[in-house]
Amino acid sequence: MDKTPVFYHKDYVKYGFGGLHPFDPERFPKFVSMIEVEEGMHKAMTIFESPRAEDADLTQVHTPSYISKVERMAKIGGKVSPDTPVTKDAPEAARRIVGGSLEAARIIDRYQTVVNFGGLHHAGREKGEGFCLFNDVAIAARYLVDQGKKVCILDTDAHQGNGTMDIFYDDPRVLFISIHQDPMTLYPGRGNVQEIGVGDGEGYTVNIPLPRDSNISEYHYSFKEVIQPVVLDFEPDVIIRNGGSDPHHSDSLTDLALDMRGLEYLGRTTSKIVEKSDSMYIDLILSGYGSRVLDGWRSIVKGVLDLDIDSPPDKEIGSLKQEPKKTLIDTVDNLKKLLGPWWEF
Fold first, then answer.
1. How far is CA 54 from CA 91, 105, 112, 117, 147, in A?
2. Catalytic position from the list 122, 159, 180, 220
3. What is the mean pLDDT of the chain?
4. What CA–CA distance (Å, rounded) separates 320 from 323?
């Protein structure tokens, strides 16, 4: 059986925004080293070199004027948003990250499951923000739908994937589901239940805002009541999950409360939905802030690939048997009413 490809390039480490910025690019080579030295991971995963995404790839979702703006800023300085300065090497590194996700889409028919350090989901057609210059998630999905495939994007990042959502907001070939911290309490302030798509894409955008301190019980309820039934009803050819460790309780930018079991649950449960829907799987891990990013990624990958490796130590918060918060139950009830015309619950 083939090992699972993990796309990486040495230039990923150049995807950074300055010394005091919360996004630490050293995460990439450190995790690759973990894969290479830990037997349980090395047996199951193999590193593939990410190609460089060219302008023709980026323009599948971004405007030429925005791409030129980013490249110009790399030479003279500037910011695409207050939180996202364009450093000299970041655009080239972003092209490699995009190239990894796009190549994952190109080889998915052969490997069935592919991993990349991607998930730049805040970048829109004509803008970058939220530490994201080019949207690799959307570019990979666009390639797949152009090949005639139905794609489900499951965004489990603590921050709602506004850029990806906007790009496919009117496209019924892409089912976009985001489970994230309540946008009233966290950037980007998008992803309310009422945002369900427009035109032909109405009903194909699903947002599940979670209250602060949501743990594995809230995630389990959301998967059971909304995510799994909608995905299985949609019958995708490919599922793209994007999101790293930032739902973890230790994350320095968010207020959710998953423990390492919960992050493993995200990967494992998504993998089970892939199996039930007889689809293929691209998993993108990039986000996370603070001291436990690598442990979080390790937990997610353990679930995705069902690895026989030890779980990182952590305090346990919540359980699958615990009743979820009432605010989430009410949110799910409202969401089911809104989406009832399109999906069977």
1. 11, 16, 25, 18, 19
2. 122
3. 97
4. 8
CA-CA-CA-CA torsion sign (216, 296, 229, 124): positive
Q: Which residue has the tokens 């998953």?
A: 258
In the chain the domains, ranked by start, together with CATH numbers, are 4-339 (3.40.800.20)
pLDDT tens per residue across span 138-166: 999 999 999 999 999 999 999 999 999 99
pTM over 0.85: yes
Which DSSP letter does residue 25 get? T
Structure tokens at 168: 């496919």
d(CA 281, CA 183): 28
Question: Tell me, what amino acid is at 288?
Answer: G
Residue 333 CB coordination number (10 Å)? 12
Tell me, yes or no, if 62 is annotated catalytic: no
Q: What is the pLDDT of residue 2?
A: 84
Who contacts 38 (Cβ-Cβ below 8 Å, separation ≥6)?
309
